[in-house]
Amino acid sequence: MDDLRTGDDERDDLLTRLDIIEAQSLAERAAAYESLHDGLARRLESMPTTART
Predict the structure, then answer these.
(1) Burial 25-43 (b: 16+ CB within 10 A, else e)
(2) Helices H, strands E: what count in the chain?
(3) What are phi and psi of 3, to 5 degrees?
(4) For residue 1, what is the DSSP state?
(5) Does 49 fall in a domain?
(6) CA angle at residue 24 from 22 to 25, to 5 degrees?
(7) Which of 10, 32, 41, 43 could pair with 21 as two cysteines, CB 3.0-4.6 Å apart?
(8) Which domain holds residue 31?
(9) Is residue 47 included in any domain, yes or no?
(10) Is residue 5 pLDDT above 90, yes or no?
(11) C-alpha angle 30/35/36, rounded to 5°?
């Protein structure tokens, strides 16, 4: 996601995606949640880390 976006925009996008996912059949929801998880995990892993002392 774009760094220029606000947290509110990102939250709204996530909530919209969740609404769309929940409207799908069980099998489609499972695949959609897996895709969402993978995307969020990649995003988290790509974030810079700071060394703790």
Answers:
(1) eeeeeeebeeeeeeeeeee
(2) 2, 0
(3) -65, -20
(4) -
(5) no
(6) 115
(7) 32
(8) 8-41
(9) no
(10) no
(11) 95
With b meaning 16 or more CB within 10 Å and e meaning fewer, what string describes 44-53?
eeeeeeeeee
Sequence-ordered list of residues with C-beta below 8 angstroms from that of 20, at least 6 positions apart, any chain: 32
16 exposed, middle or buried (CB, 10 Å; 0-12, 13-18, 19+)?
exposed
Cα 25 to Cα 12: distance, rounded to the nearest angstrom: 22
Q: Is residue 33 part of a domain?
A: yes
pLDDT tens digit sequence for 7-48: 889 899 999 999 999 999 999 999 999 999 999 999 999 988
